[in-house]
Amino acid sequence: MRLRPALLILAILLLGVIWLRLKSAGLTGKMTPPQTGEHIIILKAERKLDFYRGGKLLHSYHIGLGPVPIGAKLRSGDGRTPEGEYYICSKNPKSSYYLSLGLSYPNAKDAARGLKAKLINQKQHDQIAEAIKHRRRPPWDTPLGGEIFIHGNGAKTDWTLGCIALEDADIKALYQIAPVGTPVTILPQEKPPKRTK
To answer: How many Cα atoms are found within 13 Å in the side-chain-facing hemisphere of 21?
Structure first.
């Protein structure tokens, strides 16, 4: 019987460590948006994009993700949607997916992780870090991947290569109100969504 309390304590400690790692990465579930300016919060687990202005929720949109929604994007072609803090770094009115808002993936944390894992070299890391420091578009042609967009063409399923998809009417509305530079927070999905009957 002494084994059960020990396992319970171990489980609590493990959950605490996981929570602290997510907190240090700024990825602990719901968050309070800044009280000034625009901010987009993407909740991968809920398949939802929330648009805030001045700390007030103005719009909420259903989204589709990549085919591997659990976990952060690690490299080009992994089918994952990034997790963390980004910003809109470009707008494309002639997108193949109706309209699109380019995200600043990879960010400085992604670059540090990629350098540590030897996916990118020091020069690529420095180019990404410099672009993020000056709030420009980072290089999208490294092994970490890039060209992650919020775009149209439908949100009924997880069909993108790692982008965030909205219905065309929704991206049209968002495109008009979200300027370049808008912060975008992408919160994680830690387990598969529940299937509805």
So the answer is: 7
Number of other CB atoms surrounding residue 1 within 10 Å:
4
Compute CA distances 90 → 6, 13, 135, whole Å.
52, 42, 11
Residue 189's pLDDT is 81
Inter-residue contact 70 to 189 (CB < 8 Å):
yes
d(CA 26, CA 40): 15
If DSSP codes are grouped into helix, strand and coil, which group holds residue 184? Answer: strand
Q: DSSP string spanning 121-163?
A: -HHHHHHHHHHHHTT-PPPS-STT----EEE-S--SS--SSS-
Q: Which residues contact 6 (CB under 8 A, 6 or more apart)?
A: none
Q: 2 pLDDT band (50/70/90 cuts)? A: low
Q: How far is it, in rounded angstroms, from Cα 83 to Cα 164?
A: 12
